[in-house]
Specification:
By secondary structure, the protein is α+β, with helices and mostly antiparallel strands. Helices cover 28% and strands 20% of the residues. Strand 2 (28-32) and strand 3 (35-40) form a beta hairpin.
Length: 75
């Protein structure tokens, strides 16, 4: 269950709410006039696999010769 608090409540007890998010590992929704405006989520260290996302190079034909300009070691 997600905890929801108003901005005024959060301001008065910010450290308490942040500790609760850290301890419970559950997000906190901060509202203004009853509408959600901010979500505080616990920090999650990215896995090694996630840190590699977007670094893969794709070659349509991996057996095709590579030009001299394509070698990173020569740059």
């Amino acid at each position: 269950m997600q905890l929801q608090v108003s901005k005024a409540q959060f301001k008065a007890k910010a450290l308490q709410y942040l500790r609760e998010v850290e301890k419970e590992k559950q997000p906190l929704i901060i509202t203004h006039a009853g509408k959600p405006v901010v979500e505080v989520i616990p920090y999650k260290k990215p896995s090694k696999l996630e840190s590699l996302r977007g670094t893969l190079k794709f070659y349509k034909d991996p057996t095709e010769p590579v030009g001299l300009d394509d070698w990173e070691a020569l740059k």
